[in-house]
Queue: 4 jobs
Job 1
Amino acid sequence: MLDCRTNYCYDKILQNDLKKLYSKIDLHSLTNKEYVYDCMTNYLKIPKEKIEIGSGTIDILERLLSLFEHKTVTSIGPYWTGIKWACFKNDLKFDECNGDIAYISYPNSRDGLLREFNFDHYEFVIIDEAYGDFCDESFLYEEIPNVIVTKTFSKSLSLPGIRFAYCVGDPSYIEGLKTISHKYS
């Protein structure tokens, strides 16, 4: 069984490659976002209009939830507590049973299970696939208009310090996210 509480890269070759890469990066310069979008488009094989990047998953969630007013967010299964903070920051309600917006950590981060859920029950669905690289199933390539899938490299590549996350979704939501980009994103 996958223990989603651990976050360590055991691949020595990858560790060495990452150390070499880190030694060539100026950590005090601003990111060339267009270059990152191009890299992500090539890596994911998804058009850049459907991709947004951010400084960790919390950055993306906080900006995403700011697009909604007077809504209630609910979680399907165990959840990451950062979603409650993002709701609080955006003056949204969080209810563990009833909501307009569903948040699901997929696979569920505390137990690694894949839960079934119905997209039609919610106005909008956020699928947090932080641990998705440890699972054969993903919603990343699904064409569901009311869904955004978030991903991060901090779990699968053990790179939490890099503060890089991305999301994929309908271009109308992605466009909204891009207009709210924080300076640190």
Job 2
Amino acid sequence: KMIIGLKDSLKLIGIIIVSFFLVFVCTFFLNFYLDAKSIEHLLATENEKILYNAQMSTAKFTCSISGGFLALIAVVMLVFYLKLYINSHCSQLGVLKAMGYSDCKISLRFCVFGVSVFIGTALGFCVGFAYMPKIYESLTVDGLPEVAINFHPVLLIVLVFMPTVFYSALSVLFAFYQLKRPVLDMLLGKTVKEKKEKIVRKDKDRSFLSEIFVGTLKTKKLLSFFIAFACFCFSAMVQMGFSMKQLSSEEMGIMILLIGIVLAVTTLFMATTTVLKNNVKNVSIMKAFGYSMKEYSFAVLSGYNIFAFVGFAVGTVYQYVLLKLMVGVIYKDVAAVTSYNFDIPLFFITLAVFTVLYEGIMAFYAFRMSRISVKEVMTEN
């Protein structure tokens, strides 16, 4: 039988966290939207109707933007981890195929990856519901009737069970697609990319360090995306969190701030851990040849710097456009909400904190590289 070990399960912590935040945010906003429908008939004045419409638009806007974005990220993460798992267990899966197990039968076992989504969504729903009184209090506007909290079973189905079924099915289908390769190649541990890498060797004049630098970026494009995404989250959510304290409420600002920091740090650590794991042999060779820690850490890690700062820049633009749109469209008729302008001091403070955090994490992984045992790597096979 194919067994997913503890280490493989722990790699799914990123999906659990993304699923948690996705459902956590959507739970109280959608619940508020459904509960607020019950007070619509109590609105008497035009001003009350304007405030009410702004509330409802905020709930729908936030769910569609944050929920849709996080759902897409969860899909990308799941595919990424499935690919990593299949590549690292290629020979074991090849043995199962050689024993007569069909691709369909093997891929059906990958539905267990949907458990990580269930854990994240279930926790997000429970915590979101527990946190709901504070959110309702922050969303309630003076002059409008108080909105009572009710439990809506349909949300439990839509936010917990449906995503679990969807991501389980996605895991099975993607695994089935990945298993469509010759048994002999799988027994030898050959991945699809290994066949293509032979064609790539064109620049023979490159130094060894340059070869590692370019090769790391070329073969691991998805890792570049995750590092950029982590920095995007930090930039967008931190700046948005501080701005929301003025535009909405302190609770909403703190919540957005914490979500951004946790999501960014978790994703960055996981992506960089994968970079290090994929370059253990390269680092050991460089150490054996006498390269310094500065040289081999530069070759392996520095190529991702541009993606990190591009992600930060895109996150800055994203949060500005989003808040400008929210204030200009949703709250345009609400006198209590002032116009939103780009906060330059906040941008430079966030940039400084981000630079220290990012460089600190890179220094940590450079230190981990220095602890790699050349002897163990060279004798493991």
Job 3
Amino acid sequence: MPTNDQLRAYSLFTGLSDAELTALAPCITRRAFGKGAYLYYPGSPGLSLYLVESGLVRTFFADVHGREYLLNVFGPRTCIGLPVLPDGQARMVGAAVQQETVTLILMRDDMFEMMKRSAQFMQNVYYELANATRKLALYAQAHTILQVNGRLASLLMYHAVRGDGAGSNEIALSLTQAEIASWVGASRARINSALSKMQQQKLIRLEGKKIIILDLQGVAKMAEGLHNYSV
């Protein structure tokens, strides 16, 4: 059972009192997942939400043939799969583990009960939903407006602003080029070519699985058309 201080690390529980957190903690379970495991699949019911304690989780769309398309990646202190679906409706996306991951799990019914008792918690759920909607909007906007290089730049900008890696401009990618390609909507060869060109232009530096952004303004210019990266 998580402590109150551990729960306060998540924006979902911001502003909740000690009494509220103490009442909620017994409803939360901890579960470890091995690399490659699925938290849930597209089409499964939205019965629980997941709070990433450690590790990395990707969310994805899937087509009728089962091919997966990367939507986003989530690290520690983030919330995944907020279950606000009416009974009988299924999730549109899936979530899978990129590396060994530990999550905290809160069931849908317990979440709804807490929303009834706490106005602050209800507000936090609203904010989480708003952020999730903005992330989906960024994905749709990038794939509607930008060409391949611009979509790649928007992906890098999103993770740079989010603070992944050792510094704001350093991104430690735990994604393969194939997974990046699925987000950008291009072949692995095209992604490799685009990354190499950005390195030649001294916009980035490639170090193994790390991408170091050398020219943040230059990368942002490549992603012009998407002006708000605070999603």
Job 4
Amino acid sequence: GVLAMMYEMPRHLFLDEALQHRAYENTALSIGYQQTISQPYIVALMTQLAGVSDPSVKRVLDIGTGCGYQAAILSRMADWVFTVERIEALSFSARERLQTLGYKNISYLCGDGYAGWLKKAPFDAIIVAAAPPDVPEALKQQLSPGGRLVIPVGEGEQQGLRLIERTANGFVEQTVAAVKFVPLVAAGQT
């Protein structure tokens, strides 16, 4: 289901015209402001790990809106996507782009990804597209029972993609793959 959804998604519409010819390469590409659109493989892997294709996953939190590509993928599978971006210009352009493309089940917040979106919690899945040095406790606490958090953790070349599941007894964590993401930066920092 995830791969079929991604196959139908026009990735080139999420890039500046100068990079559209590279839209379907399996690589991360610049979207400005020292941020990137993740490579398609990683978007698919994170979406799959989050379990978003499961019909029980209704509410998803997307940290690091960027150009809106991940939010678009998620919105095709979940009932509602809540997406947070700290860079105002990216948040604004993603909202404009997604609304123009007809996505109506996405809420937008320009804010701090470390804090998540407490007013809209809990979430059945949370996907984070930037790497903090440690897992933010606020994000774990915003998971619903049985919810999954997919997040790259670490600094520089030492990052691991983690899957964290909330169980009745706490949290179960596993590292799934080595990855390289831009750092997760708190709102107001550079």
